[in-house]
Write a structure and sequence with these properties.
This protein is α/β, with parallel strands linked by helices. It folds into two domains: 169 residues, 3-Layer(aba) Sandwich (Rossmann fold), CATH 3.40.50.720; 105 residues, 6-phosphogluconate dehydrogenase C-terminal like domain (6-phosphogluconate dehydrogenase C-terminal fold), CATH 1.10.3660. Strands 3-2-1-4-5-6-7-8 form an eight-stranded mixed sheet, sandwiched between helices. α10 packs across α11. The chain is globular, with a radius of gyration of 21 Å. The relative contact order is 0.11.
């Protein structure tokens, strides 16, 4: 792999570029993004040069799509006319079913494999890029069949995923979307809902609050520009997770009034889960 073209040089795309460099990648890293973003990425040394989408696609061994999901879906319609047959296209979108389906419909000249690095933060943009963002974090690949992982291109990608310190995991695209509805999308929406509730109330303005409120609303700093696409492309799975969450909140309310021991059991169960989560390597 000599040339990597990163479409979307923001937090994830920029971090992937920096992580590659830190892991010893000596090739060329090309950025495709807005004029302001690529100017900043060049100044920070995140990319080596900037090209237009077609020129970048024609030159790249690996095309890394780190744009918002709607833009990934759009660019997949264009790439097949430009890519080399020996290239690999992958993405970093937070939902996978829609992207993998679009790729299966539009990409035929080279291989595509869906990807989702389970890393991030509420800050956006190339200035927040971090070469160790992926270290110790799961990096999900979502091939349409297991055989897609057994090609030189994907084996090379998996080697770099391991070299940047991430942990490769293979999942079916639909199973990926079901899981992240609970483990990623539900936490985001719970934090956003809490922030939206308290935004119109007088209690927080009293300054009578502790770290719990700050911790619980950290994810509410995230942008709808990113999350709007996620919700739109995983609506059914997110709705199911939200319904289960609302059912649990309702059981809490009932236990509060009728069954203190049930409430104690919820606390114990949640404490055990939270402890196990923090012990997971």
């Amino acid at each position: 792999m000599n040339t990597v073209a990163i479409f979307g040089v923001g937090l994830i795309g920029g971090s992937f570029a920096l992580a590659l460099r830190k892991a010893g990648f000596g090739g060329r890293i090309v950025g495709v993004s807005s004029e302001e973003t690529v100017r900043r990425a060049l100044a920070l040394g995140v990319i080596d040069e900037t090209l237009g989408p077609e020129e970048a696609a024609r030159s790249a061994d690996l095309l890394y799509l780190a744009q918002p999901i709607s833009r990934i879906l759009d660019i997949l319609r264009e790439l097949d006319a430009w890519v080399r047959p020996d290239a690999l296209i992958t993405d970093a979108g937070s939902t996978k079913s829609a992207i993998v389906q679009r790729a299966s419909e539009t990409i035929s000249r080279c291989q595509f494999v869906g990807g989702h690095p389970m890393a991030g933060r509420e800050q956006r943009g190339v200035d927040a890029a971090d070469p160790v963002l992926f270290r110790g974090r799961p990096y999900v690949l979502t091939p349409r069949s297991p055989s897609e992982l057994d090609t030189p291109q994907v084996r090379g990608l998996m080697n770099w995923i391991e070299r940047i310190g991430a942990i490769p995991i293979r999942l079916d695209p639909q199973e990926h979307d079901r899981i992240v509805a609970y483990t990623s999308h539900l936490p985001q929406l719970a934090s956003t809902a809490l922030g939206a509730l308290l935004a119109g109330r007088s209690e927080p303005r009293s300054r009578v609050f502790g770290p719990a409120l700050i911790d619980s609303t950290r994810l509410a700093l995230s942008s709808f520009e990113i999350w709007g696409d996620i919700v739109a492309t995983n609506r059914d799975q997110i709705r199911a997770a939200l319904e289960r969450y609302c059912d649990t909140i309702q059981m809490f309310a009932q236990a509060l009034e009728q069954d203190p021991e049930a409430l104690r059991a919820y606390f114990r169960r949640a404490e055990e889960f939270a402890s196990q989560l923090r012990e997971t390597p």
